[in-house]
Design goal:
The chain is of the alpha+beta class. The protein has 1 helix and 2 strands, in the order E-H-E. The protein has one helix spanning 55-67; strands spanning 41-43, 71-73. It has a two-stranded parallel ribbon. The longest helix has 13 residues, at 55-67.
Length: 74
Amino acid sequence: MPRIIKNTLLNYIPTDFVIEKTINPAKIFEFNNKPIKKGEIIYLCEREIRAKDNFALQFAIQKSKELSLPLKII
């Protein structure tokens, strides 16, 4: 596996990344009740650095595209 260079993780996500067609509402919670207006979509990677079968990353990518906001992975 190639060494991942800082701030380049998004370059390793394939362009044909599959997003689940239906979102399981049990996996989603609201941080607050305010609508998303501007800013960035943040994906906090605490333990698993993987793109395949990663629901949270798929959801963050989907929201980023849906809202036309940049995605940041921390």
